[in-house]
Amino acid sequence: MRSVWAVAANTFREAVRDRVLYNLVFFALLMMGAAILVGQISIGIEESVIISLGLTAISLIGIFIAVFIGVGLVSKEMDKRTLHALLAKPVERWQFLIGKFAGLAMTLTVNTAAMTAGLYLALWTVKHPLTSSDWSLLPAVYLILLKLALIVALAMLFSCFTSPFLAILFTVGIYIAGLFAGELRTVQAVDLSPAAMSAFRAVSYVLPNFENFNVMGVVAHGRSVPFALIWQSTTYAFLYGAIVLTGAAVIFSRRNLK
Amino acid sequence: MTTRHTARAAFALLLGLGLAGIWQLQKRIDREQRAAMVEADNLTLRSPNLLKRMSLEYQPLVAAIYWTRAVQYYGEKHRLHQANLELLWPLLDVATTLDPHIVPAYRFGSIFLGEKSPGGAGMPDRAIELLNRGIQANPDQWRLYQDLGNLYYFDLKDYPKAAAAFEEGSKNPNALIWMKVMAAKIAGEGESPETSYFLWKQVYDTTADPAVKKNAEEHLILMRAELDMKAINQVADQYEKQTGHRAARVSELVEAGLLKAIPKDPDGFPYVLGEGGKAEFDVNSPLLEKTLMDKR
Lengths: 258, 296
Hints:
By secondary structure, chain A is an all-alpha fold. Chain A has helices at about 1-15, 25-40, 45-80, 80-85, 95-125, 135-160, 165-180, 180-185, 195-205, 215-220, 225-255. Chain A has one domain (about 1-255). Chain A is globular. By secondary structure, chain B is mainly α. The interface of A and B includes residues 60, 211 and 223 of A.
């Protein structure tokens, strides 16, 4: 456990040193601009725009970090040959992988927490005082964070057996396909045989369903997220993430690093 | 002055002239584009289902962008006094399909769509479609029933349906008590100046949009004048009963002691008695033109 923590803390420090958190400046400017502008150019949606814009920015910036840094977590260490020095120490390959995952997850948590604070500040400027319904934003942010963790796990899985470019492509592809996983189940086509329909249905369950983590439309209008949805999505993310990381650990442990 | 200084001055001059040229050129291009816009409005993506898929999980934000585009489009057309609002429906259709809970798009969008030209698109059927869609997605929003009732009452003059909309909305526990009163009043009387005045006052008091507020204010002024004229006609009827003939001028009502002074319309012009001894606006009153426009 100590080894995992050491790798995780190091990954977090490295991300901070690489100025990953600089995106917060962009986020702050975006939210300030939106808070000032939106009331002038639209009618009746000041709050919902601040919320949906803030959550979209948190999600997109997070995805950008999760994919690009997640893919580089393993491949960069291999390219620089620093992985050999690390694995010479009493660190198992799976511990290295889990540590890297935990480090980036920590970075994303800090980043998301800071952006959430910025979002509340922007919301406060268009509407003060804040009301109890505004706290329904927190479950939405939490679900985004779960989604980001799942994306990091996928990015790491792909980077364990392919080039960084292809790993990025696969991760983004799976993310987009995962948003339509629910639709695959209900797809209606005249030409499709029952076998093909069953295959579609099976694929829809195998793909990570990223729509599970999307409650933006609910919280943008001050509605609360059902508790059942929160715990079910949490369990889904943990289960799916564990499967993906186990797969990544198996592939990585068998990989020839010479 | 050295050659270098001369070169710098020439460069600065050229830069200034160049920028001024760009400025002028851009103004011309803007004019050309504006003129082209009158010919044909353009909305590249107007399929709500395609946009729903393209916006991935960020539909609320894209919906807000489309609603803002609808507001800007309506405002720009209003500013340029252009009656063609053909893109209004597709913009609202996209916004409300992407985010079915965007209540302001239903409420204000139906006003923009339902209002007669030049104030709106003159498409009350589309406005009703939009509101029904809004009610289906947000049954807890009783104000949508109020807007539906207003549309049936003012634009379609369909009083049974207006009464039904107010009645249905009044069943919501959060609805204000007057919704039920309006339902009964419209069902019993149809159109009346008092009801119209009350409904426009509701729009005026609750809207956040300056254009809608101004429109409601203009209607309230006309309603106020209509109520004034109704009162003058009642006094003229009383005068007729007393004297056996209809008064030809308002001053006769004052001289008979039935009015304290010659009443003036909200723009400060005295009311007159027209043919048949009925109260009317003065020919110089701006409200006369507004009334004619409204009736048209």
